[in-house]
Amino acid sequence: MGLSYYTEIGTIIANVDNEIGGHLRVKEIFESFEVYKEIANFIVATQRTLQSLQSTTSNTTTTEKITYPKVEKIVELACGHGLVGLLLAYRFPHLQVSLYDLFARPTYAAFVQSFEKYGFKRPGESLVLPNVQLFEQDIYSIGREELRNSVVVCVHGCGQVNQHTIEMAISSGAAGWAVLPCCIVKESYLDASCSVQLSGDSTRYHVLCGALAHRYRAQLVAEIDQRITNRYVFIAGGVGVNGGDHVVEAIGNDVEVAARRGRLPKLSLS
To answer: What does the alpha-carbon distance between residue 165 and residue 146 come to, in Å, rounded to a whole number?
Structure first.
């Protein structure tokens, strides 16, 4: 599950650093590795949980069978340099990985080239990462069909990007969502009548992460190494929310109500 299985990763990163003149940001590299591990664990837990839910539903005697989403794709919004998505594509070769940002960073191309040079191809493949594609596109223009049967993630999205990521995932029939929030807009998660009078940035961040987790009924709250960043809270959920197309259609634009329907399952964490 971790990076210890992929000893070639060190060579891949070192090669990129050489290619771009030693200008890789160490903080972003460590940050990417840490959040990759959390997302990878969440994807595996999502797969196990949905398989269990589907198996239980299939064995019931009720006339209405519920079909849960399958994890067929990983979608990363506001992907930046793209390293997190590339690591996920390498870890999950059977899943399509779609990365979205306004433009491709030069570092992204360097990472892809290094993976192709030093990574290992799966049997029958001509490329190391045939399952990844980057789209230069505004994340607010992504169609809901693109997110169906996917795990939608966003790392250090600012402002309302986290809210958009979660609500698009829920309303699109995604299998789950995961965010590592950066700056959080209070009005997105607390009632307008709530006055937040907290002097410390850290305290405010933790309170608003809790509000986000509560609003969307998070099923996992974890953390990456605090020595790397002070924006280290990892929040994930949405597994079991979309129990079939009839649910997705019924919720309309009221995503918050949809996320509060019924009892969500506990994740099958390893």
So the answer is: 13
Count Cβ atoms within 10 A of the Cβ of residue 253 and give its class: 0-12 exposed, 13-18 middle, 19 or more buried. Answer: exposed
CA triple 233-179-215, angle to 5 deg: 85
Range 207-210 contact pairs with CB under 8 angstroms and sequence separation of 24 or more: 208/181, 208/184, 209/181, 209/184, 209/233, 209/235
- Helix 83-91, helix 26-58: angle, nearest 10: 40
Residue 2 to residue 118: CA distance in whole angstroms: 19
pLDDT digits (tens, 9 = 90+) for 194-218: 888 887 888 989 999 999 999 899 9
Per-residue tokens: 74: 């990983």
Give the span between the Cα atoms of 222 and 23, in whole angstroms. Answer: 30
Q: Count of CB atoms within 10 A of residue 67's CB?
A: 14
Q: Are 150 and 73 in contact (CB under 8 A)?
A: yes
CA torsion through residues 105, 107, 113, 119, sign: negative
Q: Is 221 exposed, middle or buried (0-12, 13-18, 19+ CB in 10 A)?
A: middle
Place of tokens 């209070």: 186
Q: What is the pLDDT of residues 237-248, one digit of tens each?
A: 999 886 543 343
Please give the backbone phi and psi of residue 42, each rounded to the nearest 5 degrees, phi first: -65, -40
